[in-house]
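Q: Got a minute? One more chain.
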Amino acid sequence: MAQERDETQEMVELGTQAIPEVKSSIHCLTIIGQIEGHLVLPAQNKTTKYEHVLPQLVAVEQSRDIEGLVVLLNTVGGDVEAGLAIAEMVESLSKPTVSVVLGGGHSIGVPVAVACDHSFIAATATMTVHPIRLSGLVIGVPQR
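A: Always. Here it is, folded:
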């Protein structure tokens, strides 16, 4: 009965019945949907809360068992200050970091992606930097 409650709680919180128990020296951090920061977004929005991400990054840095970090990104952006906090934390890690952009890494997702030591973007993925924050020039180039 307790196991059923645990599985129900996992389904509600994580959207899955069981999280695979994999012992690995690489920690995988997923940033999916909007990066939620100081404002709480509506319940129908898919979000990654930065107050959940920052403690994970501290744990990665402090763990002797974790040798590296993979950041999986599929985000439309979100709260700028929250995204910058995540990017600064990732950049400050002493362990090797890699980002993989799947789908999109828009807006504040771009600094998070490039804060890693190595960044990869899927051939079908997109990354958009808002031109309002630039000089107005937007460069569009095909990926090789």
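A: The longest strand covers residues 26-36.
Q: Perfect, thanks.
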